[in-house]
Amino acid sequence: MSNRPKIKRAFRVWQRHLTVYTKLYKSSFALNFVEPVLYLAALGLGLGAFVNKIHGLPYINFIAPGIIASSSMFAAVYECTYGTFVRMTFQKTFDAILATPLTINDLVAGELMWGATKSIVFGTIIILVISLFGLVASPLVLGVIPMLFISGLIFSEISLVFVAKVPGIDSFNYFYTLLMTPMFLFSGIFFPIDTLPPLVAKIAFLTPLYHLVNICRAFAMGEFTIVVADIVWLLAVAALLAVYPFRLMRKRIIK
Questions:
Q1: Per-residue pLDDT tens for 57-105?
Q2: 196: which residues sit within 8 A by CB, 6+ positions away?
Q3: 131-145 as b/e: b if 16+ CB within 10 A
């Protein structure tokens, strides 16, 4: 039997998560939506009153597209760290799924698809919000949506790799403190990374969130060609990382 995940079977895992989410979406909505909106209001309106224009943009217009990126990132990461770990370890959902004809690879593929879907959902909500507040200059911003899926896959892949390796749920504190928070702060959402020391700027360039922020900002301004390299970068990284969640989660589940 092939080890490749079957799309139809992986979709059933995705469908199961969607069904559960429709019953619990209010708490998830509060976590993944209210917080980025507060960042936008507090920093864009509060701090923005004391900040000069950046790249010719008012500060709130500068950070708004970055909030799309960060909101979509955290939606995927929360889902594929705590959500996946709880389903695997405490709820025993994985055991129930694997008692059916589905394979581990089908299960992992479904988790990745669901994480990318959550990325689209919350990124799209932020697009709608900033559009209603007049912070988007072009309808080309809708082109961000498929990129949210690609970046959502990357963040889901990274999250599942970490889930496969952590000894317990408390270890996610290291993941968020040492990886996600620095990425959030130094990815160009709140200031251009060329203001950072060269070494820090180079590290920031290697993060997927930096490239997603560039794409969101360019599309919101009605530009496309300047971020072709960022799009290619995300596609390449999503492909390069794809094998690791399957390999490592298989080892974690089988043991």
A1: 999 999 999 999 999 999 999 999 999 999 999 999 999 999 999 999 9
A2: 186, 204
A3: eeeebbeeeebebbb
Distance CA 150, CA 129 (A): 22
Domain boundary assignment for the chain: 7-254
How far lies 198's CA from each of 183, 201, 241, in Å? 16, 5, 26
Judged against a pLDDT cut of 80, whether residue 119 lies above it is answered with yes
Distance (Å, whole) CA 48 – CA 66: 15
Cα–Cα distance, 178 to 228 (Å, whole number): 29
Q: Show Cβ contacts of residue 87 under 8 Å, excluding neighbours closer than 6 positions.
A: 93, 94
Residues 189 and 54: beta-carbon distance below 8 Å: no
**Which residue type sits at 114?**
W
Vertex 173, ends 169 and 175: CA angle to 5°?
100
Q: What SS3 state is found at 91?
A: coil
**pLDDT grade for 47, boundaries at 50, 70 and 90:** confident
Residue 1: band (very low, low, confident or very high) from pLDDT cuts 50, 70, 90: very low
Cβ atoms 245, 112 nearer than 8 A: yes
Token output for 72: 């979509």
Burial annotation 98-121 (CB, 10 A radius, 16+ → b, else e): eeeebbbbbbbbbbbbbbbbbbbb
